[in-house]
Amino acid sequence: MSVSIDTARALLANNDRGGYTVPTEGLYPFQWNWDSAFVAWGFATHDIDRALAELEALARGQWDDGFLPHIVFHADADSYFPGPEVWRTPKAHPRTSGITQPPVFATALRAIEERGADRARVAALYRVALANHRWWAAARDPLGTGLVAILHNWESGRDNHPSWDGPFERVAETTTTTIRRRDTGHVDAAMRPTDAEYRRYIHLVDRYAALGWDPARLWADTPFKVADVGVNAILIAAEADLAILAGRHGTPAERQEIEARHRRMTAAIGGLWHEGLGQYVSRDLISGAPLDTPGSGGFLPLLTDAPDGERIRRLATTIEALMAEGVQPVPSTFPGAARFDARRYWRGPVWAVVNWMIARGFDRHGRGDLGARIDAATAALIERGGFAENFDPLTGEGLGGVAFSWTAAIYLLIAERRRRMARVA
Ligand code: GLC
After folding, report:
1. How far, in Å, CA of 133 to CA of 68, rounded?
2. Continuous segment of H or E residues that includes residue 390
3. From the alpha carbon of 406, which atom of ligand 1 is closest?
4. Cα(205)–Cα(225) distance, rounded to whole angstroms?
5. pTM to 2 decimals?
6. Which ligand 1 atom sits closest to the C-alpha of 405?
7. pLDDT tens-digit map of 335-355
8. How far does residue 34's CA lie from ligand 1's centre (Å)?
9. Which residue, 407, 390, 419, is CA-closest to 187?
10. Whole-angstrom distance, CA of residue 353 vs CA of residue 360
């Protein structure tokens, strides 16, 4: 498929399953949480109603306590493992997974509203986001430290990043669930996590299912508790967006509550800075160890007010140095890191959605020049490699699944942004 605004829109239409969008046909046949938030944002460039519908469909998967699942199983499909029978969550109609994903929802909602959305529909979705942010604070930061924890690597969205290898040494392999991988039927196994990794991923699912997916019991029992730098940064940015939405759709008390969480988290994320690497890193909350494999996730705190001038300068210098060496920005794991693998999922490849966020982070801190360079590099990768799932940081080749919704969404957003900038100039 040639790459253009028209083909990006056609791709989204093609992956539309009637009000929600699958990440790609076959490999990911349901609705995924953060994929859909980016897809909604992408739809907002040309179809506001459809953008709102995407978030409304995701909201149908919300649990009573505000939790938003990483997968909503609106319809059956047998091309994906683990399906609902492995998750065994209490939620029915629709069924869902029991873990979450980076909370981009409120940020996407604000972006949609700014493009002229129906007020009543935005107000209803604001309540969904507010309940979700309250869930994050209560379920994932019960001690009020200002950092939320992920309890499964898939919650980071950066599934097999080497940072999770250390914490996973504490995690057993499943003995009760048979692994029936479907992903390697769609994509070359060399680009995917290994079988041993999958057995550990599923052990956590088995364990949490046995605890009835009760947040307090998961918190007390889990062997995997990580302050992921990406999720924390994305949540802080989302709290800032939610505060603005609260000003229009909520009460003053809600706005104060959101701003208090936002301040507490902004202060806490500074503790994830790694001076030696010159970037932020995640932290193992059980051992206390920093998870110091450098990669794109460590740049996401640019979405917040946390970094000072010196840190911003170091983050920018690192990206500029990579680009000067001919590396495509921004590798999920940096070349030179011990477990770098240019083709294996989050161990090297570049993802358009992460680039989009990092670029907006540089814009926010007065480095719009670098944001624009990252956008240009992202658009060029897509134009050469297609709407691929991810891209080889050394060769630029498109990898993983093809015809990916969120890659098309980012292409549309970059194109819209460039049109706007051209008008301003
Ligand atoms: C993979 C990615 C995750 C994404 C999903 C659907 O699991 O790691 O971030 O949401 O695919 O695209």
Report:
1. 10
2. strand 390-391
3. 12
4. 14
5. 0.98
6. 12
7. 999 999 999 999 999 999 999
8. 8
9. 390
10. 11
